[in-house]
Design a protein that fits this description.
291 residues; alpha/beta; Elongation Factor Tu (Ef-tu), domain 3; Rossmann fold; 3 domains; 5-stranded antiparallel beta sheet; 8 helices; binds flavin-adenine dinucleotide; binds FE2/S2 (inorganic) cluster
């Protein structure tokens, strides 16, 4: 059992929790994730390890409540136990001393970029962060990002905080202004694809973190297949971070669209399995076999 030691409301439907998990805290690398089963009857979900504290034997997770499992996890109180936490999983991020690095994230990607920025800073890089959010209400980890970045820019789509517009607009401006050695982008597929276009025209290496639907997180179910340099790779074991110029974004978009909620016609509704992920997996496998 994994006890919740600390919990904080970060923004609307977004909670940060510190979980007692000594072994994971000791081994976790920036960019790795855990598979979390909030309660015995719930399915497991991937969550990025945003921080790990070996001394306190804890890991920190940032939970954006979007469905049943994330709501169940976000609803647990301090002192309550998470049923299961497996990890650390995936490969750690590629992190060296490069010089000037821009790290851009949208939505829950802010949780994933935070440990990357922290590690890049520790390696001696100058780190410029960009966080894009739909509005101030759902902006997350601003203060934590300010600590680990030399400069932080924030964009909101509705203009409710800092600069109005999209993170990619700001990225374009900064790439014109500075000589940048490397970019990290984590967020929605359109943003990462736009970052890929902008950086490839300037020959700047790009690392992206992909979040396809994951069922086991162990490389056995095939649900997280992504196309890299024309070959299939598993995001859970080969990634989730990849060379942003080698990703097939069209294939990724198709896979991510499988996740979008569908309106079921009344006669079919009673046959939908209780666990929504199962229906999505079947659809995604069906899409794969049509290739
Ligand atoms: C490697 C990895 C790391 C992740 N890290 C975090 C994290 O640190 N914090 C966090 O809040 N979430 C993270 N996610 C996303 C999180 O795992 C999903 O939101 C979660 O599985 C949804 O489960 P659910 O039962 O609550 O909702 P579901 O009913 O399964 O899904 C609800 C809706 O959420 C969206 N969704 C579901 N899964 C994904 C996904 N993999 N990517 C994008 N959208 C999705 C879809 O629109 C779906 O319709 C990560 C995903 C991956 C693959
Ligand atoms: S989640 Fe099953 S293979 Fe990656």
């Amino acid at each position: 059992m994994y006890k919740i030691i600390h919990k904080q409301v970060i923004a609307q439907d977004i909670k940060k929790i510190d979980v007692a998990a000594a072994l994971i805290a000791r081994r976790a690398l920036p960019g790795q994730f855990v598979m979390v089963t909030p309660a015995a009857e719930e399915h497991q979900i991937p969550m990025t390890i945003i921080d790990s504290d070996e001394r306190r034997s804890t890991i920190s997770l940032l939970v954006h409540e979007v469905g049943p499992a994330t709501r169940r996890l976000g609803g647990l109180a301090i002192g309550e136990n998470i049923y299961q936490v497996k990890g650390p999983l995936g490969q750690g991020s590629r992190l060296e001393k490069y010089g000037l690095v821009i790290c851009v994230a949208t939505g829950v990607g802010a949780a994933q970029i935070l440990p990357v920025c922290r590690a890049l800073k520790k390696k001696g890089n100058k780190v410029i962060g960009i966080i894009g959010a739909k509005s101030k209400k759902v902006l997350m980890l601003e203060s934590q990002m300010r600590v680990v970045c030399d400069d932080l820019f924030i964009t909101t789509n509705d203009g409710s905080y800092e600069r109005k517009g999209f993170a990619t607009g700001l990225l374009k401006e900064l790439l014109e202004k500075y000589t940048v050695q490397r970019v990290y982008a984590i967020g929605n597929v359109e943003m990462m694809q736009a970052a890929s276009r902008m950086t490839s025209s300037k020959n700047i290496p790009l690392r992206v973190t992909l979040n396809p639907y994951m069922i086991d997180g162990l490389g056995t179910c095939g649900s997280c297949r992504v196309k890299i340099n024309g070959e299939f790779r598993l995001a859970c074991t080969d990634g989730p971070e990849f060379d942003g110029h080698a990703v097939d974004y069209q294939d990724l978009t198709q896979r991510m669209n499988v996740l979008e909620p569908k309106v079921w016609h009344e006669p079919f509704h009673p046959t939908v399995p209780r666990r929504p992920g199962f229906a999505k997996l079947l659809k995604s496998l069906w899409v794969s076999t049509k290739r």
